[in-house]
Each structure stands twice: as C-alpha cells, then as structure tokens.
C-alpha cells in the first residue's frame, strides 16, 4: 500500500504538481521553501517538514478532485488546519501533499432557532466564538490556541480545553458533518438533527480521527446560550491531596464551568513574566482555578461558604474571587498563559488522563518516577484536573543539548505510560496520537482494538492515502 | 452468508440446542412455546416470533462462548433486553437464538467521585435511576418504558425520551463500554475516561447499532447531580404555529429540562381515562409541557413573566405551573400516559424528526398529506418538539381490519418519508430502524452511506450472525 512519495515511481514531482494545479484555482498550489516549511508542520518540533506541495482547495468539489487524484497517483495527503497540534498529526515529513483549508474559512449560515452555525473547516475557533457572542450565544470549546486553531482541526482531534467539565469535548458540539472519505465519496452525516436513530453514527468516527479516514469539508456546530456572570475563584491549596476534596466540595454546590489546577512552579513561571497580577501573597504548592455562573447572590454566597469550609478543613490556604470581568480575565491568565510562557523552555509535554477518582494516587506515582530518575529536571504540572486530565511538562535544563534532552524524556515516557496503563488511563487525553504517541498506542488501546481500527480505516481509505503514519505506523 | 436457521443444514435443531446448553448454566436455555413467544418479540406487532431457543448468559465469558459457537454453526443471534422496542430490532422471527440479558442485571459499582455506575446490560433503566437518586445523583435518560427497558437496549437504540433538550441522548451518558463483537472479541472501550484522544472512538459505533455489530456486556453510565426543584408548566396554545415562538421565548430565559407537546386529540384520550386531573378548562388545539429547575424565586418569576408575554402575544390561551411535586407528577401524566393510553387502539406509530426551525412547515405538510388521503383516520400528534422530534400516531378505526389498516398506513409511509427526505429529516428519531424502518432507510441515509455502514458491519461481524435483517436487509 503506497504511503508516501518515495513509493511513487515513474511520476516525477513536476508532473504531479502540474496535475495538482489543474484541480484547484490558479495560484493555489505552493511549492516554495517557506510555504513547505510553514505548512509542513504543527507546534511539535521533533520532525523536519518535507512536503511535496501545499494545495488550497476552495470548494468541496476541489477537495474531492484532490482525493480522487491522490488515489490514482497513490500520493499521500496531510490535512492542515491552524497547525497548532501537539502530536504531529498535521506534520508532512515524507513528501506528502498538504491540503490546507485556509481558503475554506467561511461561516455559511447561522440559525438562531436551531442555535447552529454551518462552518467551513478553515473557520478559526475564535471567529466562531465571536460570531456566537454577537448573537447572544456561545461556542464553549476553548483552549490556549483558539486564536489560530481551525474548526476542522478541532474536529479531527476532538479538541477539549478548559470548559470540558461543563460543556464536554468538541464531539458534543458537532450537529452534522460533511466529509470527503479517503475514497473520494462525499458523505452528509446526521444532517444537523438532534435525534436520528437510523443506523451507525458515522459522524462520530470522523471526530477525533486526525484526518486518517477523510477530510471534513463542512461542519454544523451547535451553540449554547451565553453564560451569565461568569465568576472565577483562584484558591491556593496546602498540598496536592487537598485538590480533590476541594473539587468535590464545590462540585456538589455549584455547576462548575471550569476546574483547573497548576503547580507552584507553573505559577512562578507566569509570575516571572511580570504582566500578570498575583492573586494573593500566600505561597502555596498548588493552585486551583474554578469558575461558575454567579446568576444569583445566593450562588455567590454558597461559593464563599464552600471556600470557608475548605479553609477550615485545612485544604485551602488562601483564595480570591473575581468581582468584575477584568478580574475574571486576570485570574484566567494565571492558567492560560502557562503553555505559551513555558514554550520558550523547550518543554517535553505529556497529556495524560485517568478517571477523576484515581487522580491523586496516579499523579503521586508519576511525580515520584520523574523525581527519582531526573532529579535535575524541572517538572511542571497543570491541567484540567476536573476532567482527570493532567499536563506533565518537563523543562529542558539550560545547559543540556536538545536532542539529548528528548532522548532522556523518551525514556521517561515508558515509565509514565506504564503507569497510565496500570491506572487504565489515556496516553493522550486531548492532544491526539499523531506521530508522537503512535508507538505508545498499545498502552491505551488493546492490540485487538487497534486491529479493528485499522480495518475501519481500510473501509474509508483502502489505498492508505489519508494522513498515513498518523495514529498507526505505515 | 448464512443468516438464519433455514440456512443451517446438516445440524438438527436438537443438536444445536444441546450444544448451546453446554455454554451456559444449567436451565439457562429455554425452548418452551411461552418463552419463545415472549422473548421472540418486542412491542411491535407486525412480526410473528419464531426463535429456535432463548439463552440466558450470566457472564461475559458465556456471551463470548455463545458468539463463538454461533460463528462456528452460522446461527443468527438476536439480543433481548426489556423488549420495549418499537422497531422490531429485538424480534426473532426466523429461527434465531435469542440472547437475553435478564440474568446480567447487576450494578457492579457506583463511584460518587466520578459520578458513574458500572452496569451489566440487563439493568433496568428505572433501577439505575433509583440507585442514582438514593445517592443524591440523577440518571437523566427517561421515557415511557423506563420501568422495563434495559440499559443494554437503551445503548443499542441510543434511547432518547423526554429530557433530551437538556441532557441529550443515551450516547452522552456512556462513559465506557465492554462489548463482545460479532467475531467474539471482547473490547473495553474508552475505560470510562472523560478525555481520551487515542484514535477512533469505537464506543460510539456500538451506541445505536441495534446489536448488529456485537453485544454490550458492561456499560459505565455517567450520572448527573440531582435536579433542583423541578417545576412544570402546561400551556394551551392557540394553534400549532404558536408552539415554536413559545419555545423560543422560554428557551431564551430558562434552562429547560423538557419541552414537549401534544395535540387536543392526544389530550382528550388521556382525559378519557378518568384518572388524570385536567390542568385547566380552556379547550386548546395544542398543549405544551415545559419543565425547568426553579432554583430561585427569580427564575419562577421569569417563567411567569414569559408566560404572560406569550398570552399577550396571543400564542397561549391558558396555562398552569406546578407548585408541588404532586402537581409536577400530575402534569407529566398528561404527556407520559399518551403512549400507553393509545396502545389499545392499535396505533400506527411514526417517529420522525427535523431540525427545530423546520418543524412548523414540516408538520403542516405531513398533517395535510394524512388528512387528504385518510380523512376518516384519527391522527394524534405528540412528542419532543424541543428536539424537533414528532410522534405521528394514526389510530385504527374500530370497524377496520388490522391488516387492512396496516396496509393503508404503509401507503402513508411513502408520502411521509418523502416529506422527511425533502426536509432533510430522520425517518426514525429515537425508535431505531430494526425491521420496521429498514426498507425506508434510503430516505434518511444515502446509498453510499449505507454501503459504508455495511462495510463496517462486515468488520465486526464478518459472518453476519449478529441480529441479521435489522437495519439492513439480509
């Protein structure tokens, strides 16, 4: 099954590019070095981009034409959205043709009765959020890269983020999908219906498939009512083990819209920026950011009473509650700026999850492993702890060579993932598998499951042209 | 591909039954006429039950043994839950072996931190609801047959019901699944995680698959916090076209937990029972039942103000709001008793949906078709209009022969489904396809989609032994 350019014999690159140009609008195939570099990668840094060309379809028909051509020529295709991925699922490192959705970026329809927006795949997440807001509605999937990530990519990775505890993943917000399968067929899946019990829900297969089954060419996204008087609390806890009782206490009283945590080291890195106000002076080993709709004074009172209960129990050392939108925004910066702030320290990122009840034991075990083997590495914890999702970040010591650092981290991987497996967790909670987690997939999915997944892929993509080498090895 | 008993040559029924008995506990294979009749059918009446035997596994291993044996002997298997289905998906009319989950009916674990319950497939929906309630939690999927339907069947049909507008379908509440595929493999899907981005979410394929891919042998169901001070309003509207503005008015102000409707004829049938109090005296052509959490006086006031607004607009003629749990229960009877009340009049049921914004135009068109062709038939409308889901019920005139009635109704089907197709709707919103909708599937799913569905089935069930003839023709 030919998978990449090296397997295409008899056709020269030039001929392929000439053919490709006939399938799209003039000027919509790029082969200059800058474009190949830019569109050939995502936010990961382990792979060297090396695509054959970048193609920019403007219509569903053009996407179909590209896929059919790729089947004839056995050329591998890689989808490209906002390229903010963290698993190298959108990296083209083997002479593939990158299919960018930058020119399919319109919201085609907004229906206020149905609370839906029909989006082309290249619509930026923030663009949809803003449009919803203008109409008094809300698109609740939100994360650090919302400003550049695209809806098609969100669907491909089933993006999660900071509001999952209340709103769930991207999956929950996809009312309907139009996809072009790896065979070039156009499928209109679910037709935006709330209720539709007419056989297998194929829509669900394409969500989180990382472009390995086909391309999303249109997505109808659900919108929610706008949240009312969002109010955040940042609490400093006495130790890690106090976080879950705090979650439990607040979860019982309020409908939380977020429950995030970060360690003192994560906090210190954001403080060192100098542009984020400190919430309070008491130093704490861990911090919690929680959010709820303070629709009544009564709810705000309950939040404060719960806070006081947590202080009395010795779980919480200090805390603050936002009294304005400005304060809300400032508190969120403490959490949201972490990822970008530490990106300058070449972090080795792991995105793991277990069920919420297992979090304390699991985190302690991972923490001990890393501390034992790499006492000189700075370890930062943060993440969506209300969903059981922890981001483990190891920062490169200044003197250490980048490659050596990654080799050492790869060694940690094995121990981390063995622990994930032991706790029945996920080696990738929300970043996807791509190429970075591909070789570790068996820690979260059984060999039989993987065989079934490969068989499903073969149904939609018999020639293996759709993002080969992602999720599974070629 | 052998599909039913008539294709099994050389083996006598007796030998098959003897073999089957070796796979389960003593006495757990039944072949008496009463059991064959009882376990061979669901709530539909079009098919004559004719299974070979009923088998009652008690463990996952026994289910695997049955499936492996069925593959060897090419015997068709039909899953049996609470047998409350309305599409003949659990009917065994061709010498199949029925696999009943009546003895796999335990809640194996309840985790209050994770808010999950690990259920065997035979757990009754109401049993799970009651268990959740005892723990201060809530299982929100609810419908007329909750008292006898089983969790495994709910998953097989992705059951919906009366709370979908707030809580979604069964799909939303399945944290993890253990399934035995048609090949006899045991898959543990998603491991109850909130976030898990490790390839295709196979769990989703089994939800709504009507047992055609495999059997659910364990399901971890999510629970929600208990709703607070649920309060219902029943409103009488001036005509059908007033219902959607009422929905829109309330939807903007309150987080609705239900928005149901029923026609005056449905209402009259329930009134005729004599055991349900009338909400008010004003006769109205249509009624709406809506529900919300009246957590504060302010919310109850907003509900009343919205009601007054609807009266001023001429949409609503009269209304009532529950002031106690007893009143809440009584108002719900107006809606919930319809299905059972009319079941004595041999109703021809259709369960169709469109997007909410298309409902008024769509219903008017269907109504006109039925009125034109069958002016002597009594047509009852009710359903989950807040989800775009309408139940069209045609009652058999007293003098008319049952078979003749069904033949006439089948003729309506074509016109109804053509209209469904025209409005991009679903021919089965929540009842599934089974055998009753099988031949109409193309009105909601394209031929290419159906080809992909069949190819997926072949991956999980290459010998076609799992509930053959359901969803697709054999």
UniProtKB/TrEMBL annotation, chains A, B:
SUPFAM superfamilies on file: FAD-binding/transporter-associated domain-like (SSF56176), FAD-linked oxidases, C-terminal domain (SSF55103)
PROSITE patterns xref list: FAD_PCMH (PS51387)
Catalytic reaction list: (R)-2-hydroxyglutarate + A = 2-oxoglutarate + AH2
Record key words, sorted: FAD, Flavoprotein, Metal-binding, Oxidoreductase, Zinc
FAD-binding PCMH-type domain residues: 47-226
Domain of life: Bacteria
Cofactor or coenzyme needed: FAD
Annotated GO biological process: respiratory electron transport chain
Pfam families xrefs: FAD-oxidase_C (PF02913), FAD_binding_4 (PF01565)
Record EC number: 1.1.99.39
One Gene Ontology molecular-function label: (R)-2-hydroxyglutarate dehydrogenase activity
Cited InterPro entries: FAD-bd_oxidored_4_C, FAD-bd_PCMH, FAD-bd_PCMH-like_sf, FAD-bd_PCMH_sub1, FAD-bd_PCMH_sub2, FAD-linked_Oxase-like_C, FAD-oxidored/transferase_4, Oxid_FAD_bind_N
Transmembrane segments: none
Subunit structure: Homodimer.
Family affiliation: Belongs to the FAD-binding oxidoreductase/transferase type 4 family.
Protein's name in the database: D-2-hydroxyglutarate dehydrogenase
Upper classification of the organism: Bacteria, Pseudomonadati, Pseudomonadota, Gammaproteobacteria, Pseudomonadales
């Amino acid at each position: 099954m030919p998978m990449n350019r090296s397997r295409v014999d008899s056709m020269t690159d030039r001929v392929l590019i000439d053919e490709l140009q006939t399938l799209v609008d003039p000027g919509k195939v790029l082969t200059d070095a800058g474009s190949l570099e830019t569109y050939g990668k995502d936010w990961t840094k382990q792979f060297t981009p090396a695509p054959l060309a970048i193609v920019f379809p403007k219509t569903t028909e053009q996407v179909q034409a590209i896929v059919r051509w790729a089947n004839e020529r056995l050329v591998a295709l890689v989808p490209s959205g906002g390229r903010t991925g963290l698993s190298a699922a959108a990296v083209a490192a083997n002479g593939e043709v990158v299919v960018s959705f930058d020119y399919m970026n319109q919201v085609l329809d907004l229906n206020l009765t149905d609370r839906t927006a029909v989006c082309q795949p290249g619509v930026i997440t923030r663009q949809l959020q803003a449009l919803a807001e203008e109409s008094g509605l809300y698109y609740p999937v939100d994360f650090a890269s919302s400003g550049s990530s695209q809806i098609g990519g969100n669907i491909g990775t089933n993006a999660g983020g900071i509001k999952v505890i209340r709103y769930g993943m991207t999956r929950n917000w996809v009312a309907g999908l139009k996809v072009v399968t790896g065979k070039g067929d156009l499928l209109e899946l679910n037709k935006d219906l709330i209720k539709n019990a007419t056989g297998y829900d194929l829509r669900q297969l394409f969500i989180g498939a990382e472009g390995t089954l086909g391309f999303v060419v249109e997505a109808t996204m659900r919108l929610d009512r706008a949240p009312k008087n969002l109010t955040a609390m940042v609490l400093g806890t006495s130790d890690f083990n106090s976080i879950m009782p705090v979650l439990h206490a607040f979860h019982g009283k309020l409908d939380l819209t977020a429950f995030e945590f970060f360690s003192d080291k994560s906090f210190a890195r954001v403080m060192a920026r100098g542009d984020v106000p400190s919430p309070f002076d008491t130093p704490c080993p861990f911090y919690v950011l929680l959010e709820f709709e303070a629709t009544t004074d009564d709810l705000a009172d309950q939040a404060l009473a719960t806070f006081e209960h947590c202080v009395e129990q010795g779980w919480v050392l200090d805390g603050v509650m936002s009294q304005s939108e400005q304060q809300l925004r400032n508190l969120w910066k403490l959490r949201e700026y972490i990822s970008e702030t530490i990106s300058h320290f070449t972090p080795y990122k792991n995105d793991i999850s277990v069920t919420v009840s297992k979090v304390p034991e699991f985190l302690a075990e991972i923490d001990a492993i890393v501390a034992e083997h790499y006492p000189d590495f700075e370890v930062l914890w943060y993440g969506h702890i209300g969903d059981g999702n922890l981001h483990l970040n190891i920062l490169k010591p200044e003197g250490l060579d980048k490659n050596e650092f990654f080799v050492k981290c790869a060694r940690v991987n094995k121990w981390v993932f063995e622990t994930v497996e032991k706790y029945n967790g996920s080696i990738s909670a929300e970043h996807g598998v791509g190429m970075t987690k591909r070789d570790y997939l068996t820690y979260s999915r059984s060999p039989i499951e993987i065989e079934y997944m490969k068989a499903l892929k073969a149904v939609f993509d018999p020639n293996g042209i759709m993002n080969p080498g992602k999720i599974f090895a070629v």
